[in-house]
């Protein structure tokens, strides 16, 4: 059982690394910006910095759809000579580099990837020719310590390159569609040295990334700020993991979530639910090899983080899955269940291992989740495990989390009484992370302004009723509520959550600043997602009158709530 002391209440900030900004960055947040964010946290008395997954992403750039469960994303690396062996100042003077520096709000992923890969290739070329003995030994040690996953990942990355950047390994020639066959293919190649050098390059990038993130961890320790990471429940169907260990995954089904009242999304989501595209886990195979894949994933995570959030912990108990892939959603949108059965040979979306009814089935689900979580807790050791337990939560999940000492999430807009009013914060559980929303939810400012606009059009609307509920929640009469999200109501939202009993209170960076920046818009075109950035470095907000006074008051609230 995990132990969290009830006299150690904390406060934290959630911000995606890609959204950070610093002077002279390359069009995206990076590890150097994270170092500054740690300073920002410390200056305001925040003791936790939560970030989204930092694994290498695939074509859609989603942190939750990684190309590898372990490899770090090269896009988030700091491209400066002091941070990358072999990189020179002269490398940073190209036209493309200057273009990236002047990018405004949205991330241009295509250009970022191109420029950063080019810089890393230049650095690697010099590293091969002129690195020090200490550097070469450290690189060799890293490769030796990580050879299990690194050998699979580097070969996969080379094969992606050989196939014109296409990571859909099922489209590749049959002789390289799995790791074992690809090794045989590699042995037959006449140009082995070229492939070996490319694999060394990808290993070099991971070594550099590990060292940069290790520096972030060390700096956080010095500043007494704890880092919270994120382990997504699913893994990309076209990741190096699935390609190399296909026996551990069922690629015929696609993980997702059933329709739910609080998450409407687009028409498909309203009718069928969310189809994420991840393969199912073959849990019996994972158990047969003592959950080694999951253990490795957790161990790599704890090298950098003091705590980590498991995204969609419900999936460990039972997961909803579709007999078709997300790219086929449009084909099924207008169909009824009988028409779907005709198209899928009798299959419908369903829960795996099974539904929560009857009781015997629920017990199977409960026992499975408990078994997997015990493996994760035992592997994490002293680092804290947090469970994202949102959505349609079976009745057995939260008692299991409570018994194991794992904090879940408490989001006020989901915590309702029978009359749909908000539960008082004094009734929130200690073993919980309280927050107004995750990266998937609209920020406070956006949501409040939307309610005000709708209520102004119709004083008898649902939105007006919701505003009255909000007034009761924050202890104000509805007549006191402003007609837009202003500083007073912003600070009141912050203050009331900080005074709740929960172990940890986390504010998204948008809610902390009171801005309407949303990083993920579920259901939107993936190419237009995960691109929003802050308009200035976080430290600069402390210098601007509009934000400085608010942030000072928030820091005082943290101290008054005994969370500093």
In a few lines, what is going on in this structure?
This protein is of the alpha/beta class and 564 residues long. 44% of the residues lie in helices and 9% in strands. The chain starts with 9 loop residues before the first strand and ends with a helix.
Features:
single chain, 564 residues, alpha/beta, 4-stranded antiparallel sheet, 22 helices
Oligomer: single chain
Radius of gyration: 24 Å
N-to-C span: 26 Å
Q: Largest sheet, described in full?
A: 8 strands, parallel
Residue stretches low in confidence (pLDDT < 50, at least 5 long) are none
Q: Please count the beta strands (DSSP E, at least 2 residues each).
A: 14
| Strand line-up of the largest beta sheet | 11-8-3-2-1-14-13-12
Protein architecture, described:
This protein has 22 helices and 14 strands. 40% of the residues are buried. The strands form three sheets. An eight-stranded parallel β-sheet has the order 11-8-3-2-1-14-13-12. Strands 6-5-9-10 form a four-stranded antiparallel β-sheet. It has a two-stranded antiparallel ribbon with strand order 4-7. Helix 1 links the parallel strand 1 and strand 2. Helix 5 crosses helix 7 and helix 11 crosses helix 15. The longest helix is centred in the middle third of the chain and has 32 residues. The two termini are 26 Å apart. It is globular. It is of the alpha/beta class and 564 residues long. The chain has a domain of 208 residues.
């Amino acid at each position: 059982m995990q132990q969290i002391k009830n006299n150690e209440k904390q406060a934290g900030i959630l911000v995606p690394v890609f959204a950070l900004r610093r002077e002279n960055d390359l069009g995206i947040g990076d590890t150097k910006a994270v170092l500054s964010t740690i300073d920002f946290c410390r200056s305001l008395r925040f003791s936790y910095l939560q970030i989204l997954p930092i694994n290498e992403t695939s074509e859609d750039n989603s942190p939750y759809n990684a190309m590898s469960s372990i490899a770090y994303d090269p896009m988030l690396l700091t491209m400066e000579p002091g941070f990358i062996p072999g990189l020179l100042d002269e490398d940073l003077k190209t036209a493309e580099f200057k273009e990236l520096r002047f990018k405004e709000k949205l991330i241009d992923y295509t250009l970022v990837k191109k420029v950063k890969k080019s810089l890393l290739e230049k650095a690697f070329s010099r590293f091969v020719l002129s690195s020090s003995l200490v550097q070469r030994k450290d690189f060799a040690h890293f490769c030796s310590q990580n050879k299990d996953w690194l050998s699979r990942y580097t070969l996969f990355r080379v094969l992606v390159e050989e196939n014109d950047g296409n990571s859909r390994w099922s489209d590749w020639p049959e002789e390289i569609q799995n790791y074992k066959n690809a090794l045989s293919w590699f042995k037959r190649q006449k140009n082995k040295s070229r492939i070996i050098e490319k694999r060394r390059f990808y290993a070099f990038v991971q070594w550099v990334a590990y060292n940069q993130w290790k520096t972030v961890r060390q700096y956080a320790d010095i500043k007494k700020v704890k880092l919270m990471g994120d382990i997504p429940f699913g893994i990309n169907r076209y990741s190096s993991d699935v390609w190399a260990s296909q026996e551990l995954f069922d690629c015929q089904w696609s993980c997702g979530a059933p329709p739910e009242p609080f998450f409407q999304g687009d028409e498909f989501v309203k009718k069928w639910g969310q189809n994420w595209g991840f393969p199912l886990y073959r849990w019996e195979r994972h158990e047969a090899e003592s959950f080694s894949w999951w253990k490795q994933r957790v161990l790599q995570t704890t090298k950098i983080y003091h705590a980590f959030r498991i995204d969609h912990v419900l999936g460990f108990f039972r997961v909803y899955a579709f007999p078709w892939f997300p790219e086929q959603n449009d084909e099924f949108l207008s169909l009824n269940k009988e028409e779907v059965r005709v198209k899928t040979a009798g299959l419908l979306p369903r829960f795996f291992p099974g539904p929560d009814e009857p009781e015997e089935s629920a017990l199977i689900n409960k026992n499975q989740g408990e078994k997997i979580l015990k493996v994760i807790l035992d592997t994490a050791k002293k680092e804290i495990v947090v469970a994202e337990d949102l959505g349609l939560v079976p009745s057995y999940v939260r008692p299991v989390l409570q018994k194991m000492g794992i904090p879940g999430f408490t989001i006020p807009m989901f915590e309702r009484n029978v009359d749909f009013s908000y539960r008082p914060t004094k009734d929130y559980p200690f073993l919980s992370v309280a927050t107004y929303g995750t990266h998937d939810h609209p920020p406070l400012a956006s949501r409040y302004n939307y309610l005000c606009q709708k209520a102004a059009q119709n004083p008898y609307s649902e939105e007006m009723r919701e505003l009255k509920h909000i007034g009761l929640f924050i202890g104000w009469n509805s007549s006191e509520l402003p007609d837009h999200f202003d500083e007073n109501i912003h600070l009141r939202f912050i203050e009331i959550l900080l005074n709740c009993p929960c172990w940890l209170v986390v504010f998204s960076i948008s809610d902390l600043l009171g801005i309407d920046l949303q990083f993920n818009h579920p259901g939107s075109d993936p190419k237009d997602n995960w691109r929003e950035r802050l308009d200035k470095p976080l430290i600069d907000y402390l210098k601007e009158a509009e934000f400085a006074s608010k942030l000072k008051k928030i820091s005082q609230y943290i101290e008054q709530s005994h969370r500093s």
